Amino acid sequence: RQRLADRLNQSLCSKLTVIAAPAGYGKTSTVLEWIELINVPHAWITIGKGDNDNISFWRYISAGLDIVLPGISMETESVFASDESFRSNTHINILLDGLFDISTDFVLVLDDLHFIENPSVYDSLSCFIDYMPSNIHLIVISRTEPHIKLAKLRLKDELIRIHAKH
Question: 94-108: per-residue pLDDT in tens?
Answer without folding.
Answer: 999 999 999 999 999
